[in-house]
Amino acid sequence: xxxxxxxxxxxxxxAAAAGQNSDTAFIAGGTDMMQLLKNNVxxxxxxxxxxxxxxxxxxxxxxxxxxxAMATMADVAAHPVVRQNWPAISRALLxxxxxxxRNMGTMGGNLxxxxxxxxxxxxGFACNKRAPxxxxxxxxxxxxxxxxxxxxxxxxxxxxxxxxVALMALDAELELLTPEGTxxxxxxxxxxxxxxxxxxxESNLExxxxxxxxxxxxxxIGRLSTYLKVRDRTSFAFALVSAAVALDIEDGLIKNARxxxxxxxxxxxxxHQVELALCGQxxxxxxxxxxxxxxxxxxxxxxxxxxxxxxxQRTVVRALQxxxx
Length: 325
Hints:
Strand order of the largest sheet: 4-5-8-6-7
Number of helices: 14
CATH architecture of the domain at 221-324: 2-Layer Sandwich
CATH class of the domain at 221-324: Alpha Beta
Oligomer: single chain
Pfam families: CO_deh_flav_C, FAD_binding_5
Radius of gyration: 19 Å
InterPro entries: CO_DH_flav_C, CO_DH_flav_C_dom_sf, Diverse_Substr_Oxidored, FAD-bd_PCMH, FAD-bd_PCMH-like_sf, FAD-bd_PCMH_sub1, FAD-bd_PCMH_sub2, Mopterin_DH_FAD-bd
Protein name: Xanthine dehydrogenase family protein subunit M
Helix content: 25-40%
GO molecular function: FAD binding; oxidoreductase activity
Keywords: FAD, Flavoprotein, Oxidoreductase
């Protein structure tokens, strides 16, 4: 681990101003950051600690849920309003990591979690995401756990988090603080970037900007939602495939549907074509199976991860069955 200094700004504007330096990084719960530092995957000379800033509120008011960026995964998962009105979010959090990590991990940090691609995490390998232009050994190498959607010839690393998959399905927005002291909103769907030729740029978060909250509008579809995760072991494992699904059923027909996937995309992956195929249909196993056939559209697979297409289809069917029974 490289030596670094750490500061704890007394307020958000000071933190944002300090974060404009390219050799600095923000640290929240630190559950992912410390691993990256120990492995020399990132080597900032200064860390800006956000722990003491007032960003941990969980508030539902006037039909809007506000999750402070420093609210812990455990607190959000257990909150009664989240469990009742957005069960997919609670379930995604409870299926993440371990109780110890959930007690420390934060909303903002979870959104910015880095890929678990072994070539990115091991500095003994080249990696375009870690060192632009150095190559992507994952493409001809061990790609079993990696992405099949949103990939490029430069990177097939999978986005690792569970929470953003549920947030993507439920049209979450992020509140951002700029170094100038102003706030702005950004849809989560606009936050993440596809790798393209610049896989080292993972989001549209600019230097010095801080995620201050996750914002969700209360909507009927959120209450009939769930998150299903398929992994190699039942605890502390990242998803081979996961699915966040939500349905709004009226008069026996699917009025609205939301489907997002994890474990298969270079970012949390919204599957609009499946949603369109579900709308207007009467919920049934056959309808679900036919709609999910569209999941493979645009997939770029390797010999090692081609199984994810069928697994994703079956995972979404199971999740839809669970909430429509």
